[in-house]
Amino acid sequence: MIQTRRSKPFRTITLAALVVLAASALVAQDEGAEPAEAGDQDGSAPEAVFYETATVRGRALEGATASVQVVDTDDLQHLAVRDAAEALRLVPGAWVLGNDSSAALAGVSLRGGDANFSLVLIDGVPMADSTDQYGGAFPLGSVGAAEIERLEVVRGPLSSFYGSSSLAGAVQLITAAPRDEAPFLGWSAHAGDHDHLSSRLSWGRAGESTHGSINAAVREEQGRVGEDALEQQTLSARWGRNLGDVSALRFSARLADWQADDYPDGSGGPVFGSGDLRESDHSDLGLAAMVDFGAGEVWSHTLRSTFYEHTLDRASPPIVPLVPPITESTKFNDLRVAWTGAFAPAGGAPYDVSLGVEGLSEEGRNRSLLLLPPYFGGPLAGDYLIERERVGAFAEWRWSRGGLVAEIGARADFFEGEGEELSPRVGVRYTPAGGSWSVRASAGEAFKLPSLYGLATPRAIGGNPNLQPETSVGADLGFEARSATGAARGGITVFSNRFENLVDFDFDTFQIVNRSKVDAEGVEAFLVWNPSARVGVDVRLTSQDTEDLATGRTLRRRPDLFGGVGVRVDLSEAVRLGLEARHTGSYLDEQIPAPFRTSVAGRDLVGLSLAWQVADRWRISVRADNAFDESYETQVGFPGPERSVRIGIRYGQ
Question: Mean pLDDT, to the nearest integer, of 608-620?
């Protein structure tokens, strides 16, 4: 799997695809072109909520056979969430693995999986650095809430669409785009405790045939957990153009640079650790280009290319007595080119077919130094260069008649000289005609290739070039219903996942190995109730049981029960009051300097928010986290943030 040169055929295909995209942009000269009809792609009303994660064509949420959750901009703004990690706490089945520090890794665990089992995308660009020691987990705290227009979460194995890295599901963060036809200028700023300062400036225009926007944001915070600190700058842009009635061209770009000081995982934090901080400099670059052809016709096609690059410079202090200090500098890039096609027969046929092929290329570079003491041999280099390529082909057949929807999909991934992986998925949903309830079920298989870090790290430091892909099998069964008046709706889903061949570190052989097998099962439930036009209640609850079948132990940092209750009260047409109460059950944890502690107590926290629409485009918000100043831990030795207040002002959309 380790290669020294990128294959010429793959380079040729990649360059050809990029030339086609560039040429399409140059020939887009029709200023009078009408925009493509917004539309109903599955027979649903145009105002229906659509999702685009884990599907070739945008589909109506009410017809999803998988467990899908969409959180829109109104929820994000009225609750005044701080970043993407906080936003994900609004989703049943999504548990944020982290210590509540903005500077630390905050990954999402879906249905008991590890953080690197969830594929994270920003505007369709996969954001997984395979050279990182965490195996590709994306730090959600690095995406400020001001960047996010909405987020989509699909829970369950998703390799049938995405291939590797989606053992437990996918999370897509969709950035803000202009909605006004006239040019607009938007601005927001927040300030609060823990030296929190953030600001965002945006400009854009959505015309008849062309739309575009550019956004710049800065954010900083320190002292949220111990003496941690974060400074971040982000620049993003989106541009699109309709090429006649049935075709469109879209580009997006995002550049983020941030510096983070935090306490290493396993260090015991500011309470039991040495107090030394890990210092990291990160840079993220994400690019996407897409051409759509034939929207609304029998055959529609999309040609898409994405590029992701992450660079990291990090110095980690020792964790006595097991972990020596480490310095590392890594660079990772991921290039993907894909064609997808959708066939929807004319004449109201009850089925449609989606097809696609994707080529992927990854490259990872690492220069690192493990600073062992002289009696252990002295400094040990961990340098490597590795490339990996693969091709995937996928297909999905969807049949819908009356209230019944059925889906069958599969993807085959082929690795150069390393065989293949087949990932099937099936799903069904039934809603009786005129009924107020529906039932759905889905099942699938997924895989995740070994990280470049695990494969290429020198054997003396634990690397293993013979690692095998991790796999998962998952199924769920869900029921949803709404009241006759539409004032209340709710649902419950039962799920079961089996993760196998999981990667772990064996201290006896001092090597990364495949050995773990985990069962995760549980129940997710939600209830949305609007007893009046001015009052809303939102309840989310997840009960889960995880077990490492090799050891018989529950997984670390996986509470058996977590959830929350949100209450919205519109005091007037301009003022909204919100309350968010979150419950977290106890869970296991281990920190090297604190062998006498093996668990973290449960907690109940309350947040309050107030949003005031001062004028048509002016909004003031106030949020108080941990309003009752509860003392708690997120990990052993990591105290949770004390009460904090943030005040924000926003102008624009």
Answer: 91
Helix (H) or strand (E) holding 272: helix 269-272
Note the helical H segments in 438-524: 452-456
Residue 57 pLDDT grade (very low, low, confident, very high; cuts 50, 70, 90): confident
Residue 9: which pLDDT band, with cuts at 50, 70 and 90? very low
Q: Residue 441's Cα: distance from chain center in Å?
A: 23
427: nearest Cα among 442, 445, 444: 442
- Contact predicate 483/489, CB 8 Å: yes
Buried residues in 551-576 as b, exposed as e (16+ CB within 10 A): eeebbbbbbebbbbbbebeeeeeeeb
Cβ neighbours of 150 (radius 10 Å): 19
Secondary structure of residue 140 in the 3-state scheme: helix
Give the HSE-up count for residue 525: Cα atoms under 13 Å, Cβ half-sphere.
11
Q: Can you say how many angstroms the Cα of residue 82 is from the centroid of all Cα atoms in its chain?
A: 16
The C-alpha atoms of residue 147 and residue 152 are separated, in whole angstroms, by 14
**Helix %, strand %, coil % for the chain, to 5?**
10, 55, 35
Mean pLDDT of 330-351: 91
* Stretch 470-490: mean pLDDT: 95
Give the three-class secondary structure for 348: coil
Percent with pLDDT over 90 in the chain: 66
Checking if the pLDDT of 202 tops 60, the result is yes
* Assigned token pair, 527: 């209830």
Give tens-digit pLDDT for 343-377. Answer: 988 877 899 999 999 999 999 999 999 888 787 77
The first and second tokens of residue 26, run together, are 């140059």
Q: How many residues does the chain have?
A: 653
- Cβ neighbours for 106, distance < 8 A, ≥ 6 positions apart: 83, 85, 96, 97, 98, 100, 139, 140, 141
Choose between 637 and 616: higher pLDDT: 637
Quote the pLDDT of residue 181: 59
pLDDT digits (tens, 9 = 90+) for 236-285: 999 999 988 889 999 999 999 999 999 998 999 999 999 999 999 999 99
Nearest residue to 119 via CA among 140, 144, 104: 140
Q: Are 122 and 254 in contact (CB under 8 A)?
A: yes
**Are 651 and 188 within 8 A, CB to CB?**
yes
State the virtual CA torsion across 548, 552, 556, 558 in degrees, nearest 10: 80
- Taking phi over 0 as left and psi of -120 to 50 as alpha, with beta for the rest, 621 belongs to beta
* Interior angle at CA 20, CA 26 and CA 204, nearest 5: 50
Buried b / exposed e across 394-433, counting CB within 10 Å, b at 16+? bbbebebeeeebbbebbbebebeeeeebebbbbbbbbbee
Among 483, 382, 361, which Cα is nearest to 8's? 361
